[in-house]
Write a structure and sequence with these properties.
Blueprint lengths: L1 E6 L8 H16 L10 E2 H5 L3 H9 L7 H22 L1 H22 L10 E2 L3 H14 L4 E6 L3 E6 H18 L7 H28 L1
Antiparallel strand pairs: 1-4, 2-3, 4-5
Helix pairs in contact: 1-4, 4-5, 4-6, 5-6, 5-8, 6-7, 6-8, 7-8
């Protein structure tokens, strides 16, 4: 198991959006102990039935988490990788990119995972898909950045981002293959990653084209 602790890639601007997303997710998590957020959950049935909550849930579900481990790992990954991608994309574009990756993750879960909703309404929560998209963009933009990782809870080693992220996304495919129908939405992780890969590739190429045209 590889747990990232920090990267060696300093952010070029203060990541206000990244900090704001972490704060918002944390606040909603703690408020969830006091108030129900049932209407924030993404529901496959509500979405396919064209209900308003089915569409609003595409955004709101990204701020809900099912437990301490769920939110801690998501926010750790967002903290490590989000600041640099916010520097690369800019504050507004990063926020749109993050939310779009979460939407893409949910759509993948609906249309690609045959087990999602097979035995129930098909409910989805968590920022994992959004964060997965950030990882995909980081792999494109900063493949050689070094990550200090806690490996198998014993060793501390530095690995290139492309290797760490490559192992991470490979494991998502492995877990999905080995545990189809599991409560963890691995297809959403993959969907968010693919969405981030596509969106950031288009953005990156457009920026390079603009630079060469000047």
């Amino acid at each position: 198991m590889f747990i990232p602790l920090r990267d060696t890639n300093p952010a070029l601007r203060t990541p206000y959006v990244t900090y704001g997303l972490i704060a918002a997710n944390t606040l909603v998590f703690f408020l969830g102990f006091l108030f129900p957020f049932d209407s924030w959950v993404f529901s496959k049935d509500a979405f396919l039935n064209m209900e308003p909550l089915g569409f609003s849930g595409l955004i709101s579900y990204q701020f809900l988490h099912g437990g301490w481990g769920h939110i801690l790992f998501n926010m750790l990954f967002l903290y490590i990788f989000g600041d640099n991608m916010e520097s690369s994309l800019g504050h507004r574009m990063f926020l749109l990119f993050y939310l779009a990756c979460g939407v893409g993750a949910a759509l993948f879960e609906v249309y690609v995972d045959p087990y999602f909703g097979a035995a129930g309404p098909g409910l989805l929560i968590g920022a994992s898909g959004s964060v997965s998209g950030v990882l995909a963009a980081y792999a494109i933009r900063y493949p050689r950045a070094k990550l200090l990782t806690w490996t198998f809870f014993i060793f501390f080693i530095k690995v290139p981002a492309i290797i760490f992220i490559g192992i991470w996304i490979t494991l998502q495919f492995f877990y999905q293959f080995m545990t189809p129908g599991a409560t963890t939405a691995y297809i959403a992780h993959i969907g968010g990653f693919v969405t981030g890969l596509v969106f950031y590739s288009i953005y990156h190429r457009s920026q390079l084209s603009r630079y060469h045209d000047q």
